[in-house]
Amino acid sequence: MAKQVGTDFIGCVGGLVFYKMDGQYYVRQKSSLSRKRVLKDPKFKKTMENAGVLAKASRIASKLYRLLDKQTRNRSVYNKLTGMVMGMLKAGCEPEEVVSHFTAAPESPRRPDNPSSLCAFV
Question: CA-based angle 79:53:95, to the nearest 5?
């Protein structure tokens, strides 16, 4: 990332992108990636699969997050919850299993180190 000196231009010229971030002006090269390529290219298939799982995990975590007390809610809690849900989905749990795991009354405190074993607890 190079800083701009003597100008405060924002936009694109040729293969360069001029932008402002945190009050400073920078210039960088345009990326060779495009939205269309990421969506269509087989090289990005796994990326799109992971994006789909993250989207599903985010929706589930959002519903669970709303069940928490207002004092408990913050971005860190939401991010951790999303990560836990994503791990369970990747381990093969169904969305209903994930929701019931978090909403069921706790029988005993148990938190496995391996997310793939979480489905066994549901």
Answer: 85
